[in-house]
Specification:
The chain is mainly alpha-helical.
Length: 719
């Protein structure tokens, strides 16, 4: 995919100077970028924030300190600001200068006793393995024992030489207890004074400890801070530590200043550098994703600056965000617009309370204006959106921007623009979460019926200019899904052009009889109307009556079913309540006359294959001119069966307060009688059919017998 950073550039991106964002290393552009774990860097070549220079300066400052009476230095910065990485860079430089660096991570231990025990044990153990430091290690171990008592014995096992006996340790410990702390301290000081270079002791992750553990660590440091040639390098979040050290009206800052001789605030990451790292991380996270989804380069700058960027504070946030989008975008497989996903993932990672409420706010965010004004809207829609904003806390403005940029339908609830239902097809086509089906898919990873149909329609649309390919694709789908796929093609209405009209119309009209009847709700369109709507929009795209007439002339010979031809002729013609007057009246009359002639001349076998035979024969009979031959229905059981099937319908009703839809079968008996020229002829043909009924005839003969016996349904009967 194109580089996110380059797509971010635009003429009016004055809120951030993107042109100053440094290009990523060439190696990054040439190789697949793997997601990095949330780990600090250890090597200068991994420095992406320009911290090497200040870290080098910091290391030189440490080397220049007078450590004859010990020094405590602090590297201060918020969580995730890169303190450990900064300390690692400085540590590498110190070690290159020959300075001994010892590390102690208090976060690996818990409880005051364990901290005390582990502190001295770790220091002594690390010193013992450094050349010339064994004596100092012994002295520090002895000093630690005077404070930790005997509770540390189980912990020192790994560091004690094999062969030492516990009773010997116990005897020595008791002896040192008798000698006292000062004597042990003097031995440590004497040993440390002999050093030519200081020892740097690094204590990181202090701000991750509990309040009591933070206090214990600083007591330990204060206890040993005046040892000669010892430099403590502490890395922590100032505000977290000050909060932990404050007690009984004494500010924690005052206590901290008594311990800390030098404090270095971590340099802030310049906005343009952090932006560059975000773009680079996004590119890296999506580099191996085959189909990340549609990327709207016009929408991206606003979404980045108003939704994503305010939530990312440091490189830890960048890494968390990159890890999140990698898995989500891969799982979505391009079914959701990429910019929408990038924005929602930022909400998921950094504003989890808001993300949790998204599931409860789908209607409020995606329901468009109903055209009747706010008074007729359910009040819960506005309440849902307002509740979502409130969940943002200090980041309410970020949530408002999210709604404004991603959910236009819900924007009106915040005093913004109003969008009607005509926008929904566009949002669906662009895979925007503004459409409820796309949002639900993002949230639930379950592709609903409509979104599945649109996904198929996307593929169908790419083939619609090629009759063979278009027909082959539709026929490759499960037949029960094809009607929904055809319906979803309406989403492309504003893209219908001359090249789509003839191949698209021919294929749709030919496939119409193959589509199965299915049980519908009260307001669902039947199969014929569904296909007819798309055909109408295709033909209408030609605009000029002459162009439409020429197209119809070319289409009709390629359409096989007579009922499908009848549908097209009706769409372009002038029939009351059905025609759209897309061609001249004379052309419409000519098309109708030619079709009536074709129907009269059709063989019984051709008529029997028609799925809407009754309507086709009725129009042929009713609209015939005085000089046209009379329509004669063939004496064929197959034709009778086709007529009965096309005459069958259902009356659907629904009781007040009930969701249940009641269905009652009916036959268009009067129309059947009219087509046959009388009930006697109809009765005669039904009796012939009874003699050899098809296996799938269902209730048709029973229904026909009811009508033949004189039964007629009442308008609202409950029988």
């Amino acid at each position: 995919m194109n580089c996110i950073r380059s797509l971010f550039k635009r003429k009016n991106a004055d809120s951030v100077n993107v042109e100053k964002v440094p290009s990523p290393p060439s190696q990054f552009d040439q190789e697949m970028v793997c997601l990095s774990a949330d780990n600090p860097i250890t090597k200068p070549e991994d420095d992406a924030l320009g911290r090497l220079k200040p870290a080098s300066s910091f290391a030189k400052q440490i080397l220049s300190l007078d450590a004859s009476e010990g020094v405590v230095v602090g590297v201060l910065g918020a969580w995730g600001s890169g303190k450990t990485s900064f300390v690692n860079l400085a540590q590498g430089l110190l070690e290159k200068s020959g300075v001994t660096v010892l590390e102690f991570n208090p976060w690996m231990f818990s409880g005051a006793d364990q901290l005390v025990q582990s502190f001295f044990i770790e220091l002594s153990a690390q010193l013992k393995i450094h050349p010339g430091m064994a004596e100092i290690g012994e002295r520090i171990e002895e000093y630690g024992e005077t404070f930790s008592g005997l509770g540390w014995l189980p912990l020192v096992g790994p560091w004690i030489e094999r062969g030492r006996v516990v009773t010997d340790i116990l005897a020595k410990s008791l002896q040192r207890k008798k000698e006292g702390v000062k004597a042990s301290q003097s031995r440590v000081r004497d040993a440390l004074k002999k050093l030519n270079d200081p020892i740097v002791v690094v204590l990181d992750d202090i701000d991750r400890l509990s309040t009591q553990e933070i206090r214990d660590i600083f007591k330990l440091v204060r206890l040993t801070a005046n040892f000669p040639n010892i430099i403590y390098l502490l890395a922590f979040d100032r505000y977290r530590v000050e909060q932990a050290l404050g007690e009984q009206g004494i500010p924690g800052r005052d206590y901290l200043e008594k311990i800390l001789q030098i404090g270095v605030d971590l340099p802030a990451v310049p906005d343009h550098v952090l932006n560059s790292q975000i773009f680079k991380a996004i590119d890296g996270a999506l580099n191996d994703v085959k189909n990340p989804g549609h990327f709207d380069s016009e929408l991206w700058p606003d979404v980045f600056m108003e939704v994503i960027r305010p939530l990312i504070r440091n490189m830890r946030d960048v890494r968390r965000y990159a890890a999140s989008i990698h898995g989500t975008v891969r799982d979505l497989e391009g079914r959701v617009a990429l910019v929408d996903v990038l924005a929602l993932e930022a909400i998921r990672v950094f504003l989890p309370d808001v993300f949790h409420r998204l599931r409860l706010t789908v209607d409020g965010l995606t329901t468009t204006e109903n055209g009747f004004g706010a008074r007729d809207e359910p009040p819960q829609l506005k309440e849902q959106v307002e509740s979502l904003v409130e969940a943002g806390g200090d980041q309410r403005e970020c949530v408002r921007n999210l709604i404004r940029r991603l959910f236009p339908g819900g924007e009106r609830h915040l005093g913004g623009m109003h969008y009607g239902g005509d926008w929904k097809n566009r949002w669906l086509r662009e895979r925007r979460v503004a459409h409820e089906d796309v949002l639900r898919y993002y949230l639930e990873r379950f592709i609903g019926k409509q979104l599945q149909a649109f996904s198929d329609a996307e593929s169908a649309w790419t083939t619609i200019t090629d009759k063979a390919a278009f027909a082959s694709y539709l026929e490759s789908l499960p037949i029960e899904r094809v009607q929904d796929v055809i319906s979803s093609l309406e989403a492309y209405e504003d893209e219908f052009g001359t090249e789509h009209v003839i191949p698209g119309t021919v294929v749709l009209l030919n496939i119409l009889p193959k589509l199965p009847d299915r049980q519908r709700g009260m307001f669902d369109l039947d199969t014929g109307l569904t296909v007819g709507r798309v055909v109408y929009r295709l033909v209408r795209a030609l605009k000029e009556p002459e162009a439409i007439e020429e197209a119809v002339k070319e289409i009709l010979p390629e359409v096989k079913p007579l009922s499908s031809k009848q549908r097209l002729v009706t769409i372009v013609g002038y029939r009351e309540g059905a025609g759209h007057k897309l061609v001249s009246e004379s052309a419409a009359e000519r098309f109708e006359a030619e079709l009536r002639s074709e129907v009269r001349n059709a063989s019984p076998e051709d008529l029997a294959r028609e799925t809407d035979l009754l309507r086709t024969l009725l129009l042929t009979k009713r609209e015939a001119g005085p000089d046209e031959p009379e329509l004669i229905v063939p004496d064929s059981p197959q034709v009778t069966y086709a007529l009965l099937k096309s005459a069958r319908s259902e009356v659907r009703s629904q009781s007040m307060g009930s969701r249940a839809v009641r269905r009652k079968p009916r036959l268009a008996w009067d129309v059947l009688t009219e087509v046959y020229g009388g009930e006697d002829k109809l009765r005669e043909q039904i009796e012939v059919l009874k003699a050899s009924p098809p296996e799938d005839i269902g209730d048709l003969l029973e229904l026909a017998d009811k009508y033949l016996s004189g039964w007629r349904p009442k308008e609202f009967d409950d029988d």
